[in-house]
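WP5 quarterly update. Target: Toll/interleukin-1 receptor domain-containing protein. Source organism: Geobacter anodireducens. Length: 280 aa.
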Amino acid sequence: MSTKVFISWSGELSRKLAEALRSWLPATLQYVKPYFTPEDVEKGAKWNSEITKELETSNVGIICLTSDNTEKPWILFEAGALSKSIEKARVCTLLFNLEPTDLKGPLTSFQGTRFLKEDFKRLINTINNVAGDSKLDTVVLDSVFEMWWPKLDEQIADILANDGESKEEEKRSDRDILEEILELNRMNSTRNAHSTHVSRRAVGEILEFLEEMAFVIDHEHGDLGFSLHKRLERPMRHLCMAADAPDLFDRFRRRRERYQVELFAKENKCDEPELPSDGG
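Structure tokens (predicted):
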């Protein structure tokens, strides 16, 4: 039986590192079946179907972190989803040219692994320990790792050496993250405004994705998700009106109100007041 490893990434450098890991893992541990989505857009489009199914059946999650993606919205979103689908002890942040002290927020709660031989070997042990009947004996695992490690080490070193970024990017604030999400949403709104037809279904999928992201960010960053919702409210209203779907916007607002009540109740350990149903 295969051991499924979900590999999360964001950004071009992180993608190349994750792809190298995806190729190396099953060559070293033949029972491993990695899940790696090569395109950011494809990941977003498939979130509610393929990626959800993969998460539900994955045994281990690896989050590939570089200096320029530790606060990327997609990394934070997938990290939150991994923590809900896989035992937290089996979700690992893999740090490339980073130290655990460089991380902050929700990413600090996961098992941090620097891409150094001994650290990385502990990550391989974690994968091997959940392999069930396919698990390799310690002596065999040590031998296999010693044989295959130099190849991965050389490939990763080459990727990092050829990375176009010569200096570490400044860590972005929560405001910068919100600005990026807002700009993406504005681009979608502008393109749809010039179209002769705006798909109600597409708008519904965008709203559903935003609700999921805001919900995850709420749990990891407190009021950040609520701020995100407020910033997106106006452009989303215009988009819903263009799609002749005011009911979708009303549902969006009511669901956010419910999320806020649920979070408040959880933080204050009190019963949740009843809110009107959103009908969906």
